[in-house]
Amino acid sequence: MIVAMFPGQGAQAVGMGRALADEFASARRVFEEADDVLGYALSAICFEGPAERLTETQICQPALVATSTAAFRVAQEEVGLRPGLVIGHSLGEYSALVAAGAMGYADALRIVAERGAAMRAAALASPGAMVALLGPGDDDARALAAQAGDVWPANYNCPGQVVVSGTVEGIDRLVALASAQGVRAARLAVDGAFHSPLVASAADRLRPALAAWEPALPDPPFLSTTTCVLEPAERLAEVLLDQLTSPVRFGDGVEAAIALGAERFVELGPGRVLSGLVRRVRRDLPAAQVGEPGDLAALVAA
């Protein structure tokens, strides 16, 4: 079984999607629809930047959904990609639901634009930061977070990589503690403590947008990396709300997919972050990536 996986915020890069749109009509249509739905030239920001504009949360999120959707549709049409399961990392769950037919593409663009604005507002109201702890196991990372105070595990990405969110002061304490204990800590270039209680107001703001959405049955099935189980249509809005303040359990999600029969993983969108995480979870499983036209040949060969 092939698992289609979709990256989250942080994977963006100026120029993403441009080569796909230049070469394939299906990708061009994805970006044209995004421009129409959002009322501004999202495609130009993806293709030309500037980087500062692309990284703005309310722009970055629909930009990633558009780019991942373009990559998925091209892979479907050009090489016949037919996944048996879809997963995503945080924001990437919206792209996954579009790929599964559970959320319309236009709905996804509108909802994630509101999600990005809500997250930005929450970050301004409750300033915070995020840091990746590299090396310690999950239990040790949780112990460090508890010792620092006002910080919470945000992403369990793979063995030896846990991202922690918290107040600015709490993250400063965590970095000092990690250094004293010989743990490498890498600060992330984000403007908020995402996937933590500090952004609870974002969930309150996003709730009406998700309540107005009518989910369809995911086909192929959707495996949440918040709950790490297959989620039915009637639970999707609740899962997407919980996702904002709950940790992403991507490594556990990959293990759950393997238990369901996953044999190959294909990352759709910019960057190769998720492919790298899959290899950290299970080195024996192939993981490919589609973000440029040249990636299609490798996907077929795999």
Overall description:
The protein has 302 residues and is an alpha/beta fold. The protein folds into 2 domains: 228 residues, Malonyl-Coenzyme A Acyl Carrier Protein, domain 2 (3-Layer(aba) Sandwich), CATH 3.40.366; 60 residues, Malonyl-CoA ACP transacylase, ACP-binding (Alpha-Beta Plaits), CATH 3.30.70.250. The protein is built from 14 helices and 8 strands. The strands form 2 sheets. It has a 4-stranded parallel β-sheet, with helices on both faces. A 4-stranded antiparallel β-sheet has the order 4-5-3-6. β4 and β5 form a beta hairpin. The longest helix is centred in the N-terminal third of the chain and has 23 residues. The mean pLDDT is 94.
Write the layout of secondary structure elements.
Blueprint (H helix, E strand, L loop, with lengths): L1 E5 L11 H6 L1 H14 L3 H7 L2 H4 L2 H23 L5 E4 L3 H8 L5 H21 L2 E7 L3 H11 L2 E8 L2 E7 H13 L3 E4 L12 H12 L24 H10 L4 H10 L4 E5 L4 H9 L5 E4 L4 H7 L1
Parallel strand pairs: 1-2, 1-7, 7-8
Antiparallel strand pairs: 3-5, 3-6, 4-5
Helix pairs in contact: 2-5, 2-7, 3-5, 5-6, 5-7, 7-10, 8-9, 10-11
SSE topology string: EHHHHHEHHEHEEHEHHHEHEH
Global morphology: globular
Strand order of the largest sheet: 2-1-7-8
The helical percent reads 40-55%
Q: Beta fraction of the residues?
A: 5-15%
**How far apart lie the N and C ends?**
13 Å
Please outline the major beta sheet: 4 strands, parallel
Radius of gyration: 18 Å
Per CATH, the class of the largest domain reads Alpha Beta
Oligomer: single chain
Would you tell me the overall average pLDDT? 94
CATH topology of the largest domain: Malonyl-Coenzyme A Acyl Carrier Protein, domain 2
